[in-house]
Each structure stands twice: as structure tokens, then as C-alpha cells.
Amino acid sequence: CTDNFNIPDAAIMVATAKVLEAVGVSAYLGAAALAKISTILSAAASIVTVESRHQTFIRRNILLKL
Q: Which helix (H) or strand (E) holds 25?
């Protein structure tokens, strides 16, 4: 991998992950009202549950230890 995200330490990386997960969950929840096709709504619902679990894991297991 040659990507360089200029993240100087783990605390900043975790804080960034926290923000990105929150934005992802909010985006899926906000877009759910616009979904007109049930299969798309079902797919979005399954994705948002996984994103929510990621967010919970980050907040409970990582942020509390920093």
C-alpha cells in the first residue's frame, strides 16, 4: 500500500474513524426516507446496522482506552 493519510498517531486515527462512522450512519438513516424500492431500503438497512456496530465498537472499546 502506498497511501499516506498523514495521520500522526492512533488517537487521531480513532477520532477520525469515529467521525466517519457517525457520518455514514447519519447518511444511511437520512437517505432511507428517500428509498422507493424495498430491496434498496433493505440493503441500506442491513448496511446501517453494520455501520452502527462499528461505531459502537469504536466508542466503547477504543475511545475509552485512549
A: helix 10-32
Position 19 in a domain: no
Spatial distance between the Cα atoms of 44 and 37, rounded to a whole number of angstroms? 11
pLDDT tens digits, 24-33: 888 888 888 8
Per the domain annotation, does 66 fall within a domain? yes
Q: Is residue 10 part of a domain?
A: no
| CA 44 distance to own-chain centroid | 13
Of 21, 2, 23, the residue nearest 63 (C-alpha): 21
Assigned C-alpha cell, 40: 434498496
